[in-house]
Amino acid sequence: MFSGALADRFGAKGLILGGLLVRSVGFVSLAWADSFALLMLSGLLAGLGGALFESPKSAAVTALSDEATRRRVFALQGTLGNVGMALGVLAGGLLIRASFDAVAVAAGLCYVVCYGITALLLPPVRVSSGERGLLEGIGMALRDRRFVGFTAVSMGYFMLWVQLSLSIALQAERLAGTSTAVSWVFLLNTVISVGLQYPLVRALEGRLSPLRALVLGTVVMSTGLGLIALAGSIAALLACVAVFALGVVILSPHQQVVMAELADPRALGSYMGFGWLGLAVGGALGNLAGGVLLDWGRASGLEALPWLVFAAVGYLSALGLVLFERAAGSAASR
């Protein structure tokens, strides 16, 4: 959140570049982390670097796009991000055969390359207007009831979003009897994300508003999770993962578009930083709830319970978005 406020005060480009360098140092230092303390310090640096550039990056993308192109820009950003993650997993799998040090150094060098590209191609974009105190933009976001409400609702679907790497992965391993099944889940998710995100966003343009597309994505994602309650084989689970991934493909860029449209252009960095609290809090709650519900369900013999709870949370989030839209429409008509 505070990196966004810093971007408002000092500009987004410097924060993005600084974050990329700090993250690079964090990953490279993992190669020399020969104690738990150094390992934690390296992880802290890598996390701090990501926190430094994430909100300024979103603010910069928002500032450099307009209402007509924003959906496509965020969809393309998501597609390229998924391509990068897929290539990263592939490269990491090859490099780990040499050593973990090779993986750590290669990851750090990737961020150095990103630093060079960003330094050359990203213009010195302003993400705020006028001069204001460092915390003034955060105060604006906190007083903005619509934005705070949207951020609160977003926690619900972010709770579901993180289940791919937790509950779904554990369920895949249980049903298939091998940890290799986890890679099948991630491969399917990557193929759908890379292949369908941009075309689907283009197809929905002119048919659904960004907020309604977000509702649709939330419902589809929740349905995919709920159907896992009926999945008795790895093939059935993968079919549910496909539905889940389709929902995420619709949801992800439209969530960012809605957040951008609700943000006050006078303090885009602060608003984006505050808005990503939905992921931070919702993701943390999802990780906690996912593990607890899975253990509870298996211990009590109610193995469908976690998936039904996840679906209910998602449908409630979708309902919250519908109510949010109606409240915004009522306010606009006054």
| Largest sheet, strands/sense/barrel | none
Distance between the termini: 33 Å
* pLDDT averaged residue by residue: 89
Instruction: Give the CATH topology of the largest domain.
Output: Growth Hormone, Chain: A
Secondary-structure element series: HHHHHHHHHHHHHH
What overall form do the CA principal axes indicate? globular
Topology:
Layout lengths: L1 H9 L1 H18 L6 H29 L5 H26 L4 H22 L14 H8 L1 H17 L5 H10 L3 H25 L5 H18 L6 H29 L5 H8 L1 H24 L4 H29 L1
How does this model look, in words?
By secondary structure, the protein is mainly alpha-helical. It has 2 domains: 1-121; 144-334, Growth Hormone, Chain: A, CATH 1.20.1250. It has 14 helices and no strands. Helix 3 packs across helix 12 (268-275), helix 4 packs antiparallel against helix 5 (100-121) and helix 4 packs antiparallel against helix 9 (180-204). The longest helix has 29 residues, at 36-64. The radius of gyration is 20 Å and the shape is globular. The model has no long low-confidence stretch (mean pLDDT 89).
